[in-house]
Write a structure and sequence with these properties.
Elements lengths: L1 H21 L2 H23 L4 H20 L3 H23 L4 H6 L7 H28 L2 H22 L1 H7 L3 H5 L4
Length: 186
């Protein structure tokens, strides 16, 4: 199932990259919008649910992609990753301000951490999302459109994977012992 979820998220990027290579950014944007909707529908049908991050990303793709096509201005699709990453950073930071780890809410069935571990992990994700937003701004403003498309399609995912791998030490340090995880709460 995790590979299927990854495929649902990666295929629209592959469609975007391919359409940009064969045509231009406007055709690629329209193709991305269609592929995103199909991916969300397929995710709902096959996985029986719509995860929050792909749903938010899909909504932003439709809004910014629509603006790109209607106004014939590629700036909107290029700032979409910046906006999405800043939205996720703001949501996670807001949760921390109110004493809640939104990452814990999403991952607590898979990962069992002490509260301090959840706070630190959430804070790191806040910083990482801000970093990705900043990096997107550098790439789209400083490089050609094909370079930005390649970065968006094939650069962000490996960077995210490396970031996740770098969190293993934190996860190990704050992991709850097995007996604590299975113990009934009183």
């Amino acid at each position: 199932m995790p590979m299927l979820k990854l495929a649902f998220e990666f295929l629209p990027l592959l469609v975007f990259f391919t359409a940009n290579s064969l045509y231009d950014l406007h055709v690629a944007t329209a193709a991305l919008m269609v592929a995103t909707v199909i991916s969300l529908i397929a995710s709902r049908v096959v996985l029986k649910k719509l995860p929050v991050m792909p749903l938010v990303t899909g909504a932003v793709v439709l809004v910014f992609g629509g603006l790109t096509l209607i106004l014939h201005d590629e700036t909107f699709i290029k700032i979409k990753p910046t906006v999405i990453n800043l939205l996720f950073a703001a949501a996670l930071a807001g949760g921390l301000i109110f004493g809640r780890s939104l990452i814990k809410i999403v991952l607590e069935d898979a990962i069992k951490l002490q509260d301090e571990g959840w706070r630190k992990l959430t804070f790191r994700w806040v910083l990482f999302f801000v970093f990705l937003a900043f990096l997107n701004e550098i790439v789209w403003r400083g490089f050609s459109t094909p370079t930005w498309v390649a970065f968006k399609s094939f650069g962000i995912m490996p960077i995210t994977f490396l970031f996740m791998m770098a969190q293993i030490g934190l996860l190990q340090k704050y992991q709850l012992p097995e007996d604590t995880v299975d113990a009934p709460s009183q």
